[in-house]
Specification:
The protein has 11 helices and 9 strands. The longest helix has 21 residues. By secondary structure, it is α/β, with parallel strands linked by helices. The protein has 2 domains: about 210 residues, Spore Coat Polysaccharide Biosynthesis Protein SpsA, Chain A (Alpha-Beta Complex); about 70 residues, no CATH class. Strands 1, 2, 3, 4, 5, 6, 7, 8 and 9 form a 9-stranded mixed sheet that branches.
């Protein structure tokens, strides 16, 4: 088995050493590894650091550079170059647990033509699970059902079936640079399943300038993609979705309708019940969003 690790990097040169070291530690696994890094217009020492890694000649590294387009565009561009049987997207503030590739190899034969990813656990630097475990090992589902119907929480590490992953990309709106990964996952869910493994393979160390720690800025700067994401969810079959998650969907649809300045946001909702609930929640939701993002008052009737 060959693993392609894809890493988008933007001014994170100092963080790359942990990921590189974790690849070296796992290099004694019975798998072949390639590390593909897309430098997304960094102005720090990323190029110099990557050049030094390549010169060491210990593992197969391919370094690419693009003018700053954002994480998702970087991954879209990198996936074209991946030659592995499986693809793992690993941020520059993530790294692999000792023995991670041996763990993945144990389940290689489970990646059939019907499974687009193996979903493993992800730990923080204190050794805590970043969320909860799956109902059982080898649990088959899809990403939408896991998070919206089955109560799964927290970040997970996906190991993609390369043949399937290459058919999809992160869909960005207008000139935005970020969209939730889940938007692509839900498209993959329509045709394939995932297989969930209650074993950790990845460790995450969030940075102060990371997407998660600056989520409000991410929302403000990328509202169109998020709006389309929640609009698409409201077009899906929501049977079995918990009330808590339904309210989450409605609230965020309103939030991003406001941030994206979508006209006729209520009439664009599919389904009578969805329309009624969004209409009921609309004015309180608009007021809360404007306060949260300090947006000056405008006419916020139900057709805006």
């Amino acid at each position: 088995m060959k693993i392609s690790v894809l890493t988008p990097a933007y001014n994170r040169g100092d963080n790359l050493n942990k990921l590189y070291t974790s690849l070296l530690v796992n290099n004694n696994s019975n798998v072949e590894v390639e590390w593909l890094v897309m430098d997304d217009g960094s102005t720090d020492k990323t190029r110099y650091i990557m050049t030094n890694f390549i010169k060491q000649g210990i593992i197969d590294i391919k370094y690419y550079y693009q003018e700053n387009q954002g994480k998702m565009a970087a991954l879209n561009n990198l996936v074209k170059y991946a030659t592995g049987d499986v693809i793992i997207e690993c941020d520059s503030d993530d790294y692999f647990k000792v023995g991670a590739f041996d763990t993945i190899a144990k389940y290689e034969d489970k990646l059939t033509d019907e499974i687009y990813a193996l979903v493993f656990l992800k730990y923080d630097t204190d050794g805590n699970n970043m969320g909860n475990e799956f109902p059982e090992n080898m649990y088959r589902s899809d990403m939408f059902s896991l998070y919206f119907r089955e109560g799964i929480t927290g970040e997970k590490a996906l190991v993609f079936n390369s043949k399937i992953r290459k058919k999809f990309e992160y869909k960005l709106e207008a000139d935005e640079k970020f969209v939730t990964e889940a938007r692509m996952y839900h498209q993959m869910d329509l045709e394939y399943d995932v297989l969930c493994i209650n074993e950790p393979i990845m460790i995450c160390e969030y940075q102060k300038d990371g997407y998660t720690k600056n989520i409000l800025n991410v929302f403000r700067n990328n509202p169109l993609g998020y709006y389309e994401y929640f609009r698409e969810i409201l077009e899906m079959d929501l049977e079995g979705v918990t009330l808590k998650k339904r309210l989450y969907i409605y609230k965020h649809y309103i939030l991003f309708s406001v941030l994206a300045e979508r006209d006729h946001a209520i009439s664009n909702v599919t389904g009578v019940i969805n329309k009624i609930i969004v209409a009921i929640m609309w004015i309180p939701g608009v007021i809360k969003t404007k306060r949260m993002f300090k947006i000056k008052d405008k006419n916020c009737n139900s057709e805006h």
